[in-house]
Design brief:
Layout: H1 2-12, E1 18-22, H2 31-40, E2 43-46, H3 48-57, H4 72-84, E3 88-90, E4 94-98, E5 106-109, E6 118-122, H5 124-135, E7 139-143, H6 156-171, E8 175-179, H7 181-189, E9 198-200, H8 204-211, H9 216-224
Parallel strand pairs: 1-2, 1-7, 2-3, 7-8, 8-9
Antiparallel strand pairs: 4-5, 4-6
Helix pairs in contact: 2-4, 2-8, 5-6
């Protein structure tokens, strides 16, 4: 019930400015959630593999990076909705690329990415932009790491985001909610779990509830409350 109440708070009466940092590999599974969040949030930050499709949509090469095909209409819809609702859509301006998961990373601006590159983390300028948004936020929802955090070389983006949210929750009374297995795994890896208001291990269900869907298990809980 604590989790349900927090999610209701996020969509109804969260302290503003509110920010959502969202990643993951597929935008199609999160499109309805994104559109719903755009209406309720002041900032949406797109990171991880999901950002690759936005970079590609802007006309940049993303090399061998993973992205979901045939989602142009969806991307355009997200961009238009964010303009319509005056929601600040924050996308990567630079990235860390490598030839594979075991090589050293190179910082590149979007126009420097070549055919053999894999985008594996956000770059310094992007991180700077995200830190500024976190500093100006009163409520933050985080779902999806910023890069391939399992390898230290590509964990800087996720680590710095986790540390910043954790610090601000402790010192600036930021309300911070993180959801999803990978996100919580990253937070635990960087020893920041005690600096978050709430951690949810639920990924899909957590997001479906945010989307406004009725979940059978939750409905049963509410009936029996």
């Amino acid at each position: 019930m604590e989790e349900v109440n927090l999610i209701k708070m996020l969509t109804n009466n969260a302290k503003k400015p509110t920010t959502c940092i969202i990643g993951g590999s597929k935008i199609s599974t999160k499109s309805d959630i994104l559109i719903n969040l755009i209406k309720n949030m002041q900032n949406i930050i797109i990171v991880g593999a999901m950002a690759n499709i936005f970079i590609k949509h802007k006309g940049y090469n993303i090399g061998k990076s993973i992205f979901e095909k045939n989602q142009e209409n969806l991307i355009e819809n997200v961009i238009q909705e964010s303009k319509k609702n005056n929601c600040n859509l924050v996308l990567p301006e630079d990235v860390i690329t490598s030839k594979d998961h075991n090589s050293k990373g190179a910082l590149k601006s979007l126009d420097q990415i070549n055919d053999n590159d894999l985008i594996l983390d956000i770059g310094e300028k992007t991180l700077e932009n995200i830190i500024k948004v976190i500093d100006n936020s009163k409520t933050i929802l985080w779902n999806g790491p910023a890069g391939y955090f399992e390898v230290d070389e590509f964990s800087t983006g996720s680590k710095k985001i986790a540390e910043k949210i954790s610090d601000n929750t402790k010192t600036k009374s930021l309300v911070s909610i993180a959801g999803g297995g990978d996100t919580v795994a990253a937070i635990n890896k960087f020893k920041c779990s005690n600096g978050f208001t709430y951690l949810s291990t639920a990924g899909g269900a957590f997001l479906e509830l945010l989307e406004g869907k009725i979940l059978p298990g939750i409905k049963a809980l509410e009936i029996n409350e």
